[in-house]
Amino acid sequence: MPGLSAVPAPRPEPSLRWLVGLLLVAALLPRLGVFFLNENLYGDAVVRTELAERWLASPHVITSYKDGTYQFGPLHLYLVGAVLSVFERDVAGRLVSLVFGVLSVMPLFALTRRLFGWRAGVAAGLAFSAWGMHLQFSTTAGSEAVSLFFMLAVFALVAEGVEENRFQPLFWAGMLLNLACALRYDAWMYIPLITVALVFSSEDRVASLTRAVGFGLACLPFPLLWMQGNELAHGDPFFPMKAVDDFHRQWVADSGGAGGALVWRLQQLGFWPAVALFTLTPGVALLGAVGMVKAWKQHPETRWLVAMAVLPALYFTFRAAVLLSFVPLARFTVTQLVLLPVFLAPGFAAVVAGRGAFARRAVVGASAVLAVVMPVALGIYTFRTEGGLHDSLRPVSPTSTNPVAVMQVARFLKEEVAARGGAAAVDDDPRYMDLQLAFFSGLPEMRLARVRWDTFRQRLQDAKPDVLVRFDGGNLLKDPGVRLEGRTLTLDGVAYQEQDGFLAPLHVYRRQP
Questions:
Q1: Following DSSP, what letter does each residue of 433-453 receive, concatenated?
Q2: What is the pLDDT of residues 90-116, one digit of tens each?
Q3: Spatial separation of the C-alpha atoms in residues 285 and 164, rounded to whole Å
Q4: What processes in GO biological process is this protein linked to (predicted)?
C-alpha cells in the first residue's frame, strides 16, 4: 500500500548457520590455544579419570555412591570411560570437556537470541568465548563444562516452550535435566526451581499447571532411580548429598570458619559477585547485572531466568555465610554466572541510554578489552608459577598447571620406573598432590603402593617398589614400620637411599640392593 512506503523495512537477520559457525570458531580457538598447555589439576580431574578407567575395565550401570562413582555423577564417568577406549588418560577427559565446552555456545546463543535478538546472542556468545575460567573448565577433565552445556540447553528449551506455548520443548528440557543431574548434584535444585517458575509462566492457570506438572514428571527418572540405588546400597536415598554436605561442614571447620568468624562470613557474602567481576571481567559482569535488573522490570517474561541465576547464588551464600555448612568454590558458580552474558544487551541499552555515539563505543571498547586482556594476563601470571597469589588465582585462571616439583618427580617415575616395568611407593600429601603424582607417573594401579589407600601394605608385598616418594608433612613417617636416618629411609626392614636433584616438598628414594 502506498501509505506504507515510508515505513522502513526491517533489516534481515544474517544467516543463522553463519552466526553459529562464527561463534563456534570464536569459542574453539582460545580453548585450543590452552588445551595443549593445561594439565588436570582442579575439579577432581585425575580422580574422575581414574574412576572412569576402573569403570571401563568392568563396564556396568552405576547404581549408587559406592558402586564406583562416590561423590561424582555417573554420566561423567561413562563419557570419559568411552573416550578412554581411544585416547590416553591425560587426554580423554579433557577432550570430553573441550567438545561440550565449545558446543555450549550454541544453546547460549539460542537462549539469548530468543529473548533479546540475534545481536544480543552474538554478544553473549563472544563474551562466553573469552571467559577465562571456562577456558580452564573446557580443557581439563572436571565435569563443569559438560554439565553447563546441558543446563544451557535446558534453559533454552524452557524459553522456547514458554514463548511458543508448546510442551514438547519442555519435555526435552526435562529429559536433558536428567542428564545434568547425572553429572552434578547442584543441577538437582533446578528441578523444583524451574517447575515453580512454570507455575507462574502464563496467566492461563490451567496451561501453567500443565506445563509445570509435565516438566516436573519428565525430570524424575534419573533422580528416582539414583535415590533407589542409594537406598538399597546405603539405607539412605540422599546418602551422596549428605556425604558431600558432611565434607563441606568439616571443610568449614578446617578452614577456620566453624567459630563464625566475621571475616569468614563477609568473604562468603561477597563470593558470587567477586567471582563474576573477576572471571567474567567487570564490563561483562556489570552490564549483565544491570541487564537483569532492567529485564526484571521491563520484560516480565524473562523473570524466571533471572531467578535461575539469583536464587541458587543466594541459597549457597546463605549456607556459607550464615549456616557455615558450605565452602564455595569458583567452579560452583558457573551455572549462575553464565546467565549474565544473556542480559548484556539490555544492560548496555540501560547504561548508554541518552548518551552519544562516543559513549556507546567507549563502553563497548572498554568491556571488550577487559574481557580479553584480563584472562590473558591471568593465564600468563599463573602459568607454571607457584606460591602466594599465584596459587590463589590458579583455580579461576585459563591455565591450569601442576607444581613444578610434582611434575619433575612424575616425569622421573614415568621414564625411569614405569617405562622399565618397575613399581613405586608414594606417600600421601596434605594438599592431595600425591593424587596428581600417581596420575602423571604413568604407573598402573597394581604397581603403585599408595599410603592414602588401605591397600598400601598389600601393594608393598606384591610390587616390591624400586622407588619411594615422600612428601614433607605426609603420613609415611608416622607409620610404625618406617624409620628415617639422615638420607636413608627404612620401610618394613627395606632400606631406601635418597636421590639428589629433586625439589621440596618431595623426596625420592631408591631401594638399596
A1: HHHHHHHHH---GGGEEETTS
A2: 999 999 999 999 999 999 999 999 999
A3: 30
A4: lipopolysaccharide biosynthetic process
